[in-house]
TrEMBL record:
Keywords: Membrane, Transmembrane, Transmembrane helix. InterPro entries: Nodulin-like. Residues 234-261 are annotated as: Disordered. It is a multi-pass membrane protein. This is Nodulin-like domain-containing protein. One of its GO terms (cellular component) is membrane. PANTHER family: FAMILY PROTEIN, PUTATIVE, EXPRESSED-RELATED, UNCHARACTERIZED NODULIN-LIKE PROTEIN. Residues 15-126 form the Nodulin-like domain. The chain crosses the membrane at residues 17-38, 80-99, 111-144, 164-186, 198-217, 282-309. It comes from the Eukaryota.
Amino acid sequence: MAPAAAFAAQVVRGRWFMAYGSFLIMSAAGATYIFAIYSKDIKSTLGYTQEQLNTVGFFKDVGANVGIHAGLVAELAPPWLVLALGAAMNLGGYLMLYLSVTGRVHRTPPLWLVCLYIAVGANSQAPLILLVGWLPAAVSVAFLATIRIIRAPPRSPVTARREYRAFCAFLYVSLALAAYLLVAIALQKRFRFTRAEYAASAAVVFLMLLLPLGIVLREEAVLFKANITNTPESQARAAPTPALPVATKQPPAAPVPPPATTAGQRLLLSLRPPPRGEDYTILQALVSVDMLLLFMATVFGVGGTLMAIDNMRRRRDALR
């Protein structure tokens, strides 16, 4: 295989491109935070009161933040299947919401059904609802083969520092993109943009979304050169004559605990929390005190923030 083709294959199958794909999926899934933009259209089109609209917003937040079912699926299925199910749920939920708001269904759906739509989609002006429905699903489907479990190789201190600098570069690009969007939104509210100016602004955003790909190529180029250096032919030319092994006394092996024999013992072992710093399984997280504390902190901390974000438009209209 030619070096260029080998490098391209390594980039597509590598860990850094998977991280880039994960960033794009998360950026497309941020539509849960723009509920204030389209909530007024849902309220006026479907004839809801403010209390009913708050109920819809509550179920939107429930669908976006309660992920036990997704974790259970991830325990049993590969990541691509989890992404495919999420894309289908997002598209189905928001597509039905779009059809309801635009009047393409025969009658106005009841409140509980709209809450179900937005909870399933959980991520609308009617065109915005449709965009929220298909864009996250399309991005997830595009990276189905990329997002997968990759065992990290052993890392040296030099490698760890280089990876830290790479993630800092990702962070700096995201901060630059956020600053640009803030300035662009402020200018669009103050001045009337032409169609060409909107196109130029969108092009800048698109280019900044592609900018992390340069970081991916840089990191994969370093790994590609290291792999070429560590080929068997290179090592055979550079390796000195091996010295004779010295016999050493092996320490005795640690005693292995007897395996659980009964179903109750196996269940208790599966629910036993891992050491601090290790990954939890879904069953371990459900019965863990640490996860309960994190859940309560999230409910009381993030819940107030989501309420403020969902009602941003109401506060703006009240201050006019």
